[in-house]
Amino acid sequence: MKTSFFKRAIFFVIPLAILLIFTLFPFVWTFLTSIKPQKELFTSTLHYLPLQPTLGNYVELFSHMKFVHNLANSLLVAIVTSICSLAVSLLAAYAFSRYNFPGKFAVMISFLLINMFPSVLLLIPLYSIMRQIGLLYTPWALIIAYSTFTIPFSVWLLTGYLNDLPISLEEAAMVDGCNRRQGFIRILLPLTVPGIIATGIYIFITAWNEFVFAVMFTNEGNRTLPVALQSFIGEFDIQWGLLSAGGIVTTLPILLMFMFVQKKLVEGLTAGAVKG
Amino acid sequence: MMKNNKLTPYLLIAPAVILMLLIVAYPIARSMSMSFLKYVLYRPFDIQFVGLVNYFQVFKDPVFKQSFLNTLYWVGFGVFFQLIFGLVLAMLLNQDFKGRGLVRSLVLIPWVTPGILIGLMWTWMYDGNYGVINDVLHKLNIIKDYIPWLARSNTSLGSVIVTIIWQGIPFFAIMILASLQTIPRELYEAAEVDGARPWQSFVHVTFPMIKQTVFVTSLLRIIWVANSVDVIYIMTNGGPGYSSLTLSVYTFVKARAALDFGYASTLSICLTLMLSLVLVVYLRTLSKQEARLR
């Protein structure tokens, strides 16, 4: 018994603990930084736990109207991107999952490839196109730019979820007198809802986190949170407390959403990306 | 599959395909044509066709050379250690223990954390005077003096690589875990009956079963890591000097700070061409899989 206890400690508990600490420490540290008063951040000996924990950084953050405005912008862009991408992708995913047609494989593969282009490749041409058509510095510039990778990705995910549902479901409905559209809307769609939610939340997260397009395509008035965080660096001479609080506020909603759909999302991802 | 009106599937995919043609294919074509131009945004009256001049410049550009080498290190070390630690993590998470579900969701978090926050968190931890990494290493007697990790040209690239490793471990872990769970238990039991040691059963049972996933995930990750801009841009902006500049960051900086759209387009096309080698391998693997499934 004793040897197996040691064995389990060495081969399982210790490595797992190390990897967990490595993974979680940066977040814990950011959180601790966010509740420290400014003077505790720059001391000659480092205090790991705050001596006088404070919510001051959070209060200050939300008293900047700009930050609230950035939050609203991020929400707007992420929500509209999710809805638009889902609508377009769901139609295509239904076709890929339920029909065989010439050119299907080629189109699917090109959708897969689009996800792999460097975003900097699209950055420059999209910037000049947006400028020409007058969308630069509007939320639409970001929504369109994000669709370049959210649509192909969600087509793949949704096709995977739809493939999991047997076609006999709709066939049975058609025998009962449904037509194709009714079969889709009444039978298939409700069953796909968990997959649609997972995909939607993943798009939301991606759009919420995106930085490269956001930094090029926004100005003072309509920044999203990641760009706002970066711009803090110059504006306040790196106030780490405030920045950390901003980071926590930016990430917390994402983490909660992710925890909520984690299982479904991972299923879809592993099914879609690995098995092809 | 159902037989129906032959046009229906095309109508269904039309919105997605048309959108992709407009917002992906057309911009890529524009990018290609811009790479043949001398095109600096703030000199709008000095735009000219220069043919391959930008491409020749790439070969003469010492910054390109360095950022190319940095990209190789960034991708090579970054992805390799993500894979190793991800594999270990997946094997650990494949065991039965209390609270496994919670641990699984916790370790996935870095994967959905915004790159900007990752960059900021690690910049603060690496800080030369007040950073926790220096404090820990100093207390453990590993270093004598505090090191400004991101501000030194011989440590900056290594430091950002550690950060990207941290970010990528969860992705490998979930992909490998998913494929570990498809291995039937009987295979291990059989191996044990045959007297296989744990290491041997890893080599002969586990690895052959997850090989494919490891390969495909690595290819995906190589492409994503090579394309990643935000983490390095936030942490070092490619510096000091060009010591941590990768090709994607170089392109971004050229486009954003220098507004040199002609040369930046050329750089992005060079990056795409290099990555397309990886893509070819990826596609071949996928089509082989496809063939086997049929």
UniProtKB/TrEMBL annotation, chain A:
One of its GO terms (cellular component) is plasma membrane. The chain crosses the membrane at residues 9-32, 71-93, 105-128, 140-162, 183-205, 238-261. Gene3D superfamilies: MetI-like. It is found in: Cell membrane. Pfam families: BPD_transp_1 (PF00528). It is a multi-pass membrane protein. This is Carbohydrate ABC transporter membrane protein 2 (CUT1 family).
